[in-house]
Amino acid sequence: MTVLDHAAKTSPTETAALLRRRRHAAARRTAALVTLLAALLVGLLAVALTVDLKRVPLSEVAPAALGLRDGLADYVIFKIRMPRALTAVLAGALFGLSGVLYQRLIRNPLATPDIIGVSAGAGAGALTMLVLLPALPHGMTLAALAGAFAAVGVIHTLSRRRGTVDTYRVVLVGIGLSALFTSYHTYLFTLADDQDQATAMRWFVGSAAGADWTSVTILAWSLGACALGAVLLERPLSGLTLGDEMATGLGARVPLARTATLLLGAAAAALATSVVGPIAFVALISGPIAARLAGADRAGWLAAPVGAVLVLASDVIAQHAPVISPVPTGACTALIGAPYFVWLILRRTTGDPT
To answer: Which helix (H) or strand (E) element contains residue 37?
Structure first.
């Protein structure tokens, strides 16, 4: 029996009590899932720090991870493995957050930054700095933000139809724009020497290799700022999912809320991309996984930790899996995300509602 069916047969007081119980149950389920994902992250972090560890005793791992050891333990754990693992966690959370913001705003599971060209725009900006001006301080971060915002502007302009944004056109325009940026990436590769080409190619696939504590600091501040922005936008974004007219009736400033969400999602994707490259499909699949776990109305709270788990698990596999390792982190996320993307396309083409 649905809430509406129940409301038709009960008093308003009983209906309100039922709604409160359901909200409380949903909140408890979300809290339990967040706890489970946090435990999974801790376990994956332990694996990332200890797997294939040689010449460093396991008893030294925890103190070294906190910077309390020197010598080989400090170098391997604190300077290499710990920042790489934390970079994967923070970047994955940013990708997951950016994806669910776009999916909720545009109401299309395909409309994520990595599919509609926003991540490609960020990659174009960052790759330009990497190849042409690698010594510029914070150049990749600033250029990635500029590229992502430029992509948002183009997509928003070309997707308007009769004064409103057509979500179907957003996906089509974004895919075309992504192909254009990819051509520009190829052009940049032709300008680089052999060493820069190898570095750029690994970055372009997406990898947490080479991360340091500066990377962790940038991503931590970025995630904090973007998470705060997402909290502030939660109420207007919930209204937008009901449609522009309903959102306006509820008091939301629709154009401002839409623009802020587009820019916030682009910023989250760009900041992660500037550090680890455009790791594919994390933004696409984090939101739907979170929705499966907790329901569509709670997906916004779980997409970030789901993205963190996906990238850290993929990075561990990329480094240590037999036969295939070592490979870039993005190669492992693509193995999961590409089949999902094809399935999603086929499902929407056939009109399958499941």
So the answer is: helix 12-50
CA 179 to chain centre: 20
How far is Cα 95 from Cα 305, in angstroms, rounded to an integer?
10
Measured at the CA of 153, the angle between CA 147 and CA 159, to 5 degrees, comes to 130
The residues, any chain, with a CB within 8 Å of residue 319's CB and separated by 6 or more, are 48, 52, 325, 326
Rounded Cα distance between 46 and 69, Å, is 17
User: Residue 66 CB: number of other CB atoms within 10 A?
Assistant: 11
Nearest-angstrom CA–CA distance, 351 and 223 = 36
What are the boundaries of each domain within the chain? 82-350
Structure tokens at 269: 């994707």
β-sheet bridge partners, residue 212: none
CA distance 336 to 325: 16
Q: HSE, CB side, 13 Å, CA atoms: give it for residue 82.
A: 18
pLDDT tens across the length of the chain (354 residues): 444 454 445 566 766 666 677 777 777 888 888 899 999 999 999 999 999 888 888 888 888 888 888 888 899 999 999 999 999 999 999 999 999 999 988 888 888 998 889 999 999 999 998 888 876 778 889 999 999 999 999 988 888 777 676 777 888 898 899 999 989 988 988 887 777 777 788 788 888 888 899 999 999 999 999 999 999 988 888 777 666 666 666 566 777 888 899 999 999 999 999 999 989 899 999 998 888 888 777 788 899 999 999 999 999 999 988 877 788 888 889 888 888 777 777 776 555 544
Specify the fold of 82-350.
ABC transporter involved in vitamin B12 uptake, BtuC (1.10.3470)
Alpha-helical runs (H) found in 241-253: 244-249
**Structure tokens belonging to residue 81:** 């493995």
Which tokens belong to 132?
Answer: 């042409």
Angle at CA of residue 353, ends 351 and 354, nearest 5°: 130
